[in-house]
Amino acid sequence: MAEIVANLGLGFSIALSPYTLMLAILGCFIGTIVGALPGLGPSNGVAIMIPITFTLGLDAVAALVLLTAIYYGAMYGGRISSILLNIPGDEPAMMTCLDGHPMARNGRPGDALVISGVASFVGATLSTIGLMILAPALSRVAYQFGPAEYFALYLLAFCTLGGMASNNQAKAALASCLGIMIAMVGLDPNSGMARLTGGNLHLYDGVDFLVAIVGLFAVSEVFFFIEKHGKQGALNIVVGRVTIPWAEIWSTRWTMARSSVLGFLAGVLPGAGASLGSFLTYMTEKSIAGDKGGFGTGVAKGIAAPEVGNNAAAGGALVPMLTLGVPGSGTTAVLLAVLVTLNITPGPTLFTERPDVVWGLIASLLIANFVLLAMNVPMVKVFVRILRLPPAVLMPGVTMVSFVGIYALTGSYFDLLLVVAFGVLGYVLRKLDVPTVPVILGILLGGKMEKQLRDAMVLSDGDWTYLVSSPIAVGLLLAAFLGFVAPLFLRRFIRKPPVPDHAKPID
Amino acid sequence: MTLRLKALFAGAVIFTAGTASAATECIAPANPGGGWDFTCRQIGKILYDIGQVDQPVQVTNMAGGGGGLAYQSVANERTDDADLIVAASQATATRLAQDAFGGATADQVRFVGAIGADPGVIVVGADSEFQSLNEMLDAMAADPGSVSFAGGSAAGGFDHLKVLQLAQEAGVEDIRAIRYIGVDGGADAITQTVGGFTQGMTGDMSEVVGFIESGDVRVLAVLTEERVPGFEDIPTAREQGYDVVAVNWRGLYVPKDISDERFQEWADKLRAVGESDEWKAAMEANGLAPFLVTGDDFQSFIDGNIADVRTLSQEIGVIQ
User: What is the 3-state secondary structure (H, E, C) of A38-106?
Assistant: First the structure.
């Protein structure tokens, strides 16, 4: 413990220099904006800033501080457009739409932003502390997860999907199957053969889930707007004074505690990442609260859980990145590239060889969190003001930014066509009352689940019992089975309350 | 701040990366974070730092088709852009050999040179039963399915081919029975191996450096002609009796129709980067071995390499 305090002292001595501090604040600000813009998420935010860090000639610590501040800032900012526009600013903020937007439509956009801001702070701070104390020990967890265990983990995510749609499980299942189908497009990972690409080279790497998100959420929103001839704004909410709902925040304390732990662990597992973190925490809290918890109608816990989850996962994802050199998410993959370019080799020896880098980074993250809390709670009115823009300005603006974001990321016109195609798909699905979130999860996790299953089969020579050969795998599979079956039985005993109007998709 | 202002701001950030038309552009044919991205950023940075170019090099990430999209674009659309360089590696040559770039062939671009090579390695966990390459390959000769491997490339890719080449040398008859899973990069392959899910890891030296220092893994062989400077205690496969050399070179190609003068200029600039102290430091930190081949010498290296990979791929049935 004394060692940690001494190391942290070293870290703060680096992080508190005016120059580093300025970079952290700058990073937080840019990050929040990048995160709030639909289509631009943490990974492209960081990627866009890389050339700038090189041009400025920043040293390793300074570059890392700037880029991770952007990373954390984007994780905070992602929630803003989820809540205000029902369009996730980035993929981990997807789950925040489910309760955040209904609360905003209930006339409490300020409260939703404050609660989610505090939740982001709690998740990010606890996970940074977790990173500090547990990183060396937790890096061993990755060694316990082979193909069978990962397959069980992803299966768990899909099996709990049934509870996602507030009114129709079959439609949620249909939507996730659609997502898994889209995930199959591209080169088959085990044979290198092209599948479902129609010979089009653009599809060889599959469909980027950012493309799908922007299409399904942002572009379909524009179609709905056009359908209404722009008469009724997507958001005709009168914003009152923004106060801090202390009691409500306090009521979510256990949700925050549980979600921090769960989100952090999801982040630590390489490949699971922030999206799975926010998903698992939301589903866990929803099942704990039960049907009377009102999840999906705009409750505080439903906002707190995914925001704590994805921010905690962001901190957790730094654990395998720093200790093993295995990126836990798209963004950490980009950060890894930066480290390597700066001649720092992440891996088991980084903590002992470059304590200035590691502890300077940790101290900056702690500072960045306080800066972000200040930006995202007292200054929240700045973001609420977006609502006052007439939709005729707002929606085309959102579309333009989305397209620019996608093009900046992939540099391909083909992806822009795909965005439009997904927009049409999203419009049709929402007209049919089919939820779109499971489609994204299918695209995000379906390919990984398939890959793990097939790797397991390669390693075991096609022996299915390999999937239940470890206690971790068996535990996860059991949880998946219960998650799938339990709602079916519970439904008999508990009468479902009627779904309130505002929980339905906006149309 | 209104969303419109934000849009302008984001636009400004994005477009600063694209305004200077005279500046050199380096295409990394993959998303940020991989080897090609590293090549572009490192070479681009040093080119500017040592004054070979007068504006910072702009890196463009053009992911798609395992590098095929960028290759097609350069081979068909930007055939005479003399300010364009593209990151390449052994993976580029392997995919060309296996006709994985949608019908594109190696003569549609000009390969400038390589400035370093990541030596291939065969690695086991520290507590593995295999103490030498011989023990591992003997076990495979007895039962090809008894040893499984994880690597950072897809099945049929270069990491997979390294294992198959060794197995062929060791007299393993049914090399198709060897189990291989391709995971997300070398570090991931190591966690699978240290965790005991696979028995061996096949990859590049740069991917295992940190794990050698921490003592988590043991390198059974490095696939170079000589032992690698800085890692003198790791034996080569050659000295253990298996004549397999496989290095993942890092280099560049340029469009086909640029003038011979400009081509030679790029070859000279690349050589200057390769000989700079900065690059040498970067190589040492990342476990790269010296491998400086430019111009026509490199073109003949590529031609030979592609022919070799094609023959092996046909033998194992990756291609017809």
Answer: CCCCHHHHHHHHHHHHHHCCCCHHHHHHHHHHHHHHHHHHHHHHHHHHCCCCCHHHHHHHHHHHHHHHC
